[in-house]
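Justification of computing resources. Each target in the renewal requires a structure prediction run like the one illustrated here; the chain below, 273 residues long, is used simply to show the kind of job we budget for.
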Amino acid sequence: MAFGDAVMATATARGMHALGKIAAFGDPVTKGLKWTGYCESVFKHNPNILQPGMDGRQPNVVWFKHYKKTLSYYTHWDGHKCKYFWNYAYRHVPGEFFFAADESLGLPDEKPYIMIEPNVAWQRGSVNINKDWGEGKHQRLADALVQRGYTVVQCIHEFSRRQLTGVRHVPTPTFRDGMRVMAKAKLFIGAEGGNHHAAAALDIPAVIIWGDWSPPQVVGYQGQTYLTGGGKEFCGNTNPCPHCRATFERITVDEVYQAAIGVINGNTSARPG
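Resulting structure tokens:
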């Protein structure tokens, strides 16, 4: 599972420990965990989730098929057609993070800040190109927010192909490091994906430059602001998609800026249906 899927898993596991149970994500027949490199950052310190090295055959373990090609938010993935088919009966609920007492959260030396992520998960292949707002727009957005007097922060990691100028750069080698920064942000702005799931889990207001790849009423959360460019096709294409590119071209810098100011001022009108 990727970062977003791992955050979603924490919602499934919520409250298990209090019931004397523990959630395991993997194959219930072989009792094998489906543990990816993303899981450590998301599941760390979570008492509700079985970790590697723990006994998965205990009677209190509840197994869930929650990994690639078994996830509930799509009905199936057609590899031949390179397309996801969405499960419109599904609704996400926010996950949760557990931080230890020695894990510092936020940037204490800064006044309240806005976190912008101009990158998508480039490392995960062509599908994420269909979630990308485009080159240069995040910079113009950051410039406008800084000019208005806001502190803007960008987390810098190994996949930071785009690095904004005129903002504070914060090294975040792991996803968890980024979530520690996000945890004290006044607003997150970025693409659909792991960060928008994390913002919901951390209860951070968010403006998501969504586009038309996936349906926000399925993959999104109530309370976040989504900009779809008017799209309603939600194509699910995993190859670079001209339709998705055209949708993002309709989302202007000013539209995102006005949405951000609206959220900061308490006006969150553009929400998923």
